[in-house]
Every structure is written in C-alpha cells, then in structure tokens.
Amino acid sequence: MDVLDILDRLVAFPSLAGQPNGDIAGWIEAYLAKHEARVTLLPGPEGDRSNLFATIGPADVPGYVLSGHMDVVPAGEPQWSSDPFILRREGERLYGRGATDMKGFLAAVLAAVPALAKQRLARPIHIAFSYDEEIGCRGVPHLIARLPDLCAKPLGVIVGEPSGMRAVRGHKGKAAARVTIHGRSGHSSRPDLGRNAIHGMAETLSAVVSEAERLTHGPFDPTFEPPYSSLQAGVIKGGQSVNIIPDNCTLDLEARAIPGVDPASLLALVKASTETSATGGFQVEWTPLSAYPALSLPQDAPLAALLQELTGQTPLAAVSYGTEAGLYQAAGLDAIICGPGDIGRAHKPDEYILAGELAACQRMIEMLGALCST
Fold first, then answer.
1. Could you state, in order of their start, the residue ranges of all structural domains in the chain?
2. Which of the following is catalytic: 8, 101, 133, 350?
3. Distance of CA 212 to the CA centre of its chain
C-alpha cells in the first residue's frame, strides 16, 4: 500500500476523541505486524481504547520515536462538500477529517515502514500512536509511563503535528477546567424564592476577565504570539427560559502558559473566586478538564540539529498551538514537532492535506532510517 491508500483507510475510521478506537488501532497493529514490526497495544484505563507502540530495530538501544494521535475531532459541520470520512482527491488536495490533523502523518509513518524494515537499523525507530489527544492529551501519559518497559530511553521524540514539515522547538502549556454552579429554580416573578445560578457565576466570570487582562502585562516570551500567557472563558451555559430562574450554570475556561509558567497556576485565582459563590448559598463544582505542559527544546539540542538535517530548514522557535510533545519533555525526553500539513486547515470543514506534503514526510522518515542504519 502506498501513502494515499493508507490515508484512505485511516480516514475511513471515524475515530472520534472520547470514543472506542479498537477498529483503527487493530488495523494499524495488523499492518505493522505484516512488516515484522514488534507491536504492543496498550489499553487505557477507560477499557475501550488503546495506545499503540511498535519498534523496528533493536529495542535495547536508544533510538527515535515517531509520535502521533489516532483520534480526530467531530465532523458535524454542514459545510463539508463530501462525506468527511471518505477521502476525496481533487488534484493535489486530499480532503477528509483528520487528513491534516493528524492522520496524514500516521499514513506517512506507516508508508515508510516497509523501507525501514528492509534496513539494518543500528538504532531503532519506534512508533507511538495515542488516543484522545483532541480532548486534552489524555491517552499519551499512559503510553509514556510504559516506555521504560518497552524500549531503551529514546534519544528524541518527533511529534508529527502539522507544521508544514518545518520543525518547531516550542509551544505553550495548557490547562482547562469547568465551573458548575447549582442554584434553585422558580418563577422569575419571585426571585426571592429562587437562587439564580447565572448571577452566581458573575464573580467567577469577572475573575476570568480580570486575570486575563493582568496576564497581558507579563511575564513575556517574545518567541510566542501573543508573547504572554493567556486565559479565557470559552463556553458558558445556563438557563431554560427568560421567565424561569436558572438553577444551573456552567463555565468552561482555559489557560495557555509560556514556558516556565505552570498553566494550572493561572486558574488558581479563578478557582478561589468560586468560594464567593459558595458563600452565597450556591453549590459549586470545579472539574479539571485537561492539562499539558509547555515545550521548550533548546536551540542547540542534538534533536533540533537532526531535524534541520532531515528537513533542510532551521527549526522554528515556537507555535501557538499545543501538542503531546510537552508531556514527553516533562518525562525527561527531548521532543520536537515536525509533520505534514498546515494547522490552519485543521478542525474545520473540508480539511485537507497535499499529496506532496505526505511524500515529503515519508522521505524525511526514510532519511531518518538511513541515518539510524549507519
């Protein structure tokens, strides 16, 4: 199978984040086993989805990890020009959910496997495909925890998120949480008999706005846009009708932190503000949704030099989006981002990748194999 055939098969799996992924993980496992890769499925604690880890070459020697995620975001937008789970080609463009984020990278990795298997790799190339990245990098921590049992400590991890095949050394960290306030319902003509949960959220929402403004004053890191940490309220829900006192209100918020700042710490002031609502007679719940650390690979790191050799381009200092790379670095492994496609095409109708981008990524992986065989 060539890279386009593989991408066609991968896109056909509607592997939505938060859902069972046995179909796609099983297909990849069978494909890799046919090419004599040593494959391990690693079930997560949810019980219905798994990470996948495979090795080509000697597992007891330090090598490199090619890392990607198998899950995709939903594709329910009505603006899709065709079925998002059937790969459609128009010239160089290949349309489908996940084509860019990030089944294109997975397809390029799998298409390179036959060539890697034929080489006598002195250093191994590992494949690490995770689940539930799109809902907060929930799967990969379980995979990372198993690495000491699966291989020698890797020299580096290449996370294939879409970067235009130019390596990236850094990204911000992220933490997200949900605030739920429970009040008491009633007729709007008698507010004295109810407890308005939307009003109860006012103090917390005000704290989000205030803290977001404070963060614009620093600390700063000029490698990012914007060059400071940020905080925002992303979703707020509450109420049924204007003449009913709302008994529930939820607020989803997220913080994105520059390297050196714990993203969870940016939510601390907001969390403290919920105590004011609690003293007003409301029941308040604080639910963490996701968290991952920032990535900051030094400019002179050997992994950065390797990717410059493989791509012919100097790695970028940073991007605004986040990846699993920060979690690998937090576990003591050098990590860098480099993959086909453009992040601007992801998470929207008619997501696509270019055939030439897939070919370039496959060439890079095969070049890595050549370096590992010398």
1. 3-170+294-372, 173-292
2. 133
3. 23
